[in-house]
Amino acid sequence: MTAFYVTTPIYYVNGEPHAGHAYTNIAADVLARYHRLKGYDVFFLTGVDEHGANVHKSAENEGLAPQAYCDKMAPTFTKLWQRLNISHDIFLRTTSEMHKRGVRKFLTALEASGDVYKDTYEGHYCRPCEQFFPEKELTEEKICPVHQLPLEWVEEENYFFRLSKYQERLSSHIRENPMFIHLEPRRNELLSFLEAGLEDVSISRSSVSWGIPLPFDPRHIAYVWIEALSNYMTALGYETESERYQTFWPADVHMMAKDITRFHALIWPAMLMALNLPLPKHIVAHGWLTKDGEALSKTRGIFIDMDTDIATYGVDAFRYYLLREFSFGNDGDYRLSRLNARYHADLANDLGNLLNRVLGLVGKHFKRVPEPTTPGEFDDEVKAMHRETLQKLDALMETFAFDTALETIWGFVRRINRYIQQTEVWTLNTPEKRPRMGTILYNGLEALRIISVLIAPFMPDTADKIRQQLNLPVGANGFDTIATWGGLPKNLAIARGEPIFPRIDKKTRQKKASPPPSPKAAPKQKAEKSPSNLISFSDFQKLDLRAAKVIAAEPVEGADRLLKLQVDLGAEKRQVVAGIAAHYTPETLIGKQVIVVTNLEPVTLRGVESQGMLLAASGDSVVLATLETEVPLGTQIR
RNA sequence: GCCGGUGUAGCUCAGUGGUAGAGCAUACGACUCAUAAUCGUACUGUCCGGAGUUCAACUCUCCGCACCGGCACCA
């Protein structure tokens, strides 16, 4: 049996899963289910990434030990996967022993490859700043420009992977295997990134404690990304090179959102090259979801209310909508009105109603599956379309064109509706025409049986519901059972039931919709319990914040985000470069009163010196901090 | 600033060097087995703008505009 191995990324446990995660896992699930029905030996992996500084910090913020925090968060993911009918074989947690042992073996092998080296950062270090200062910025005395304190000479070790060595091989691999990275734009981006040259990557952190120590130097913790990537092998039992590992590595598909392709398409393959291991076959990146045209954003409270929409339309409709409406690989705009339209037009009207009308006719006139004794007009056309649909579907699934795949299946669904209409089967209830009626209805039922298999990867529950009403065994629905027309057993009692996609009027919609979710706008202000996050008042006092007025503003040549500003501090005027060009035009800034950090060391940005910094809220959008009413220029702010 | 992509009917998108297509939505008609479902017909388009190549361009080339993405950059 041919093996098929599909993975999703492992998601950071610090943070609730959102619709983007759902999209990835649904897509991966469809692939997994499709290949299972095709007779492949499938292994489907998803999981969570529980290590690293971010998780550690979130745990601290909640006053929990890291492991306890992870134990609390991991179920939020498994619950969602259950809700979405995700059929993964393993939910990997990176705190599991199997994974840890695998990572150690992986790192040991990587080190043995000779492509890991230790490098030392050394330089003048200021403890309060937690920062190194380059020689060229310092005077003879070696004092911290911020604190005016003597700097220490510090050396810090880090382990690096010689990624740069693999630049050429990666480049030619991507060029020679057009399907290695799915969707042209991602591929081009990577190639141009490669052309710019690769730098070696750090694979360890010595300042982080929550993670897996390097086997060859336990004072260092494996960098989370390096550790996380190896999960695709550790989950299979890489440590012991188990049978499962032998069977399934290399992965057929690494499914992910487009933002993390670089790790998967460059660093991961390069490390595998170093280990002389085969590379994954496809890196498949899908686009991002937006909601009503806006980027999803926790801080601005823009999110897709999966709970409500699934409660209203059902999980299969949700899965269907995501994969049918958006061209896979491109960004997609999630709109409830579109989900509603798809639900009614495609699911309720086309498919649900088809099942209902055919079963209604059979129930009324035959009770059981009739014998197809009397071929006639349109029969061959329908059968030809069956073969055609199967063929197309194969090709489309191979290129991850889920939207077109569903469109193709629906072409068949519509054809059957048309068949019923064209033959006017309901008029054939006379003794001489009855055999023809039976034949047409047999074909209708057979088409529905075929459809139940075609849609099974996308809408597993719906497939089962259809099969239940046809009184077919729910499990045995492989693609081999629909390869040829006529597999539906004759004389089977049918079991017409409730509509599988009942229409949803506005009233029901409102009833089912939960009250408007409390704007998750302000992210929960978690009590900062951790002493390590606190600074002393004297630390705070080190900041010199002053009221200032913008007196001139212009763009910085050759920079997208930078504006060069002249600000008046009363006692003096200064030039400040601010990264706000995407959010403010120069004209609107002039005359504005702003808050400036005045005792920041100067830097040169894009060749322009900046002698301070503007305070601004920098979430998804950037908003300048201003004063409620104007105050004299130069007033201290604290 | 550099690199790449996109711009086609109200909406979501296909598409080919020879005067443009699908689904949804809309209108009208047919039918009445069915979840006010189904089926048929019709409708609208300066195929982003401009120039060029060509007998002929929406499709090729160049320039421009808009939007999106990658890189640089965000003290």
What would you say this structure looks like, in words?
By secondary structure, the chain is an alpha+beta fold. Among the domains are: 333-482, Isoleucyl-tRNA Synthetase, Domain 1 (Orthogonal Bundle); 543-637, Beta Barrel (OB fold (Dihydrolipoamide Acetyltransferase, E2P)), CATH 2.40.50. The protein is 39% helix and 19% strand. The protein has 20 helices and 26 strands. The strands form seven sheets. A six-stranded parallel beta sheet has the order 3-2-1-12-13-7, with helices on both faces. A hairpin with a 4-residue loop joins strand 18 (563-568) and strand 19 (573-578). The protein is globular. The relative contact order is 0.09. It binds one RNA strand of 75 nucleotides through helix 6, helix 13 and helix 15.
Strand order of the main beta sheet, please? 3-2-1-12-13-7
The CATH H-level homologous superfamily of the domain at 333-482: Isoleucyl-tRNA Synthetase, Domain 1
The biggest sheet, with number of strands, parallel, antiparallel or mixed sense and barrel status, is: 6 strands, parallel
- Average pLDDT confidence is 85
Low-pLDDT runs: 510-533
Question: How does CATH name the architecture of the domain at 333-482?
Answer: Orthogonal Bundle
Name of the CATH class of the domain at 333-482 = Mainly Alpha
Task: Tell me the radius of gyration.
Answer: 31 Å
What is the helical fraction, as a range of percent?
Answer: 25-40%
